[in-house]
Amino acid sequence: MEHRAFVAQIMGLPISVHVRGPQARGLDVESAVQRVFSRLRWVDEVFSTWKPASPISRLRRGEVELADLSGPVREVAALCAEAEQLTEGTFSAWLPQRPDGVVPSAPRLFDPTGLVKGWGVERAAQVLRELPRHTFCINAGGDLVAGHGPDVDPGLAEQPWRIGLENPADRTQILQTVELATGALATSGTAARGSHLLDPRTGLPSTRRGSVTVVGTDLTWVDVWATAVFVGDTSTRALAEADPRVHQVIDLRAR
């Protein structure tokens, strides 16, 4: 069975697409993958907090109101509000203007970064779900979506992608392997980027070490829950495990 991999640098990180199927090296597959990348570039243009002309940057500067922006931006804002409610505040897209928590009374800035990557990849994956007879896996900086298109051979559809989970204390080691044929996986932690995750309840960076990986049906939500569980406590993990979109929580935080 043919297997082809594609890679593009989008959102400041490498995004890879792997495709298996009888015509994995054909033009139809290549065209579909380029549409995936195109959709993700659009997500970056709209939701980037670094690009001055993006709608999110303009919103953060107070030049426009949320109601003035496009449907997808309002959809993401609504999902962020839902995520904050579901996680009981351990995930939030409304963050202090300064990451050290100083001036807590200042207006909070809207930063959907923690949700929009999973949301964007999940939406872009729909292109490959419509590609007949092939399976796929999209890897966006360690957050993954896997699935298949119509008319795929059952044996191929059941063939999983094997994902190694790094030891957050030693990134040269693989601690565990997860097999994923259809669904999503996301990891949050400090091993790769240090203390970059804010605890919305304090406005301060989380000082925890390690990682949390969540496996489920929808990358938007497993990504949200991975972040929430990492900065949260046992009650947050219980909330995640009660969500029907979550199948497994792998907690590798340092004790």
Structural class: alpha+beta
Could you state the order of secondary-structure elements as H and E? Answer: EEHHHEEHHEEHEEEEEEHHE
Number of helices: 8
Question: What's the helical proportion of residues?
Answer: 25-40%
Query: What amount of the residues lies in strands?
Result: 25-35%
Which radius of gyration do the C-alpha atoms yield? Answer: 19 Å
Q: Which regions contain 5 or more consecutive residues with pLDDT less than 50?
A: none
* Order of the strands making up the biggest sheet: 1-2-5-6-9-12-13
The mean pLDDT is 92
Main β sheet profile: 7 strands, antiparallel
What is the terminal-to-terminal distance?
Answer: 44 Å
The number of strands is 13
Global shape: globular
Explain how this protein is built.
With 255 residues, the chain is an alpha+beta fold. The chain has 8 helices and 13 strands. The relative contact order is 0.13. The mean pLDDT is 92.
Question: Would you spell out the secondary-structure blueprint of this structure?
Answer:
Elements: E1 2-10, E2 13-21, H1 27-47, H2 55-60, H3 71-86, E3 94-95, E4 109-110, H4 113-124, H5 126-129, E5 135-140, E6 143-148, H6 154-157, E7 161-167, E8 170-180, E9 183-189, E10 198-199, E11 204-205, E12 211-216, H7 219-231, H8 234-242, E13 246-251
Helix pairs in contact: 1-4, 4-7
